[in-house]
Design goal:
210 residues; alpha/beta; 4-stranded mixed beta sheet; 7 helices; 13 strands
């Protein structure tokens, strides 16, 4: 039911599963409700847990540094931020530390970017995950409006957009694929009696032993 989800490299994928960042539906248990998109799914990637283990976070940064040639030339690593979405900033901070770049972020709630990113600055964009890509596009647009040069790759922990590029930039991710989703009215798990839970509010309930 969670087909077409791929995580690489394999040692990192195993760590993400072991530490609980990759969640999959278990028979007779609850399933995930993506509140903003009104979608239900048997799969969830918890980016907060993915960045909470510093050893794994460093390994992910090392992986990105190994596959993206221009990452070391960046002046900035920039992400976006809201009170409920902060994992991208943790990833960006770790990458900035890894590359010697400065750290910045866009506040999606008010559109403010309180960092002196200037025309000609080379920027790596690092975000928590990509679904529709709207937040990532807003960030790229803001950076380009500042005259910054967004470098070749968009770095993300999870790419669930079904695309390999966004705004002509290649997406580099650890976890990628298209998990199965249904509208709330068509969800077969709901019809089978499974309870739909918002993972950000009911993470412990999702992970309770059956």
């Amino acid at each position: 039911m969670c087909a077409d989800i791929i995580a690489s490299p394999l040692p990192l994928a195993a760590k993400l599963k072991d530490n609980g960042a990759i969640w999959e539906y278990k028979p007779n248990g609850p399933h995930v409700q993506y509140v903003m998109a009104d979608k239900h799914s048997p799969f969830y990637f918890n980016t907060d847990i993915a960045v909470s283990d510093t050893e794994t976070l460093i390994e992910m940064c090392d992986y990105f540094a190994g596959v993206i040639q221009d990452i070391s030339s960046a002046d900035w690593v920039v992400s976006y931020f809201t009170p409920s979405v902060a994992a991208g900033v943790a990833l960006a901070a770790a990458l900035a530390n890894r590359t010697g770049a400065k750290l910045g972020y866009l506040n999606l709630d008010n559109g403010a970017m309180p960092f002196p990113v200037s025309a000609g600055d080379r920027v790596i964009v690092a975000v928590d995950d990509i679904h529709s890509g709207s937040s990532t596009r807003s960030l790229i647009s803001t950076l380009k409006n500042h005259g910054a040069i967004v470098q070749s790759h968009i770095i993300t922990l999870g790419n669930f957009s079904g695309r390999s590029e966004i705004e002509n930039h290649t997406i580099a991710s650890i976890v990628q694929g298209q998990p199965q989703t249904w509208s709330s009215s068509e969800c077969p798990l709901c019809k089978a009696g499974s309870k739909a839970l918002n993972p950000r509010k009911y993470w412990q309930e999702l992970n309770q032993a059956i």
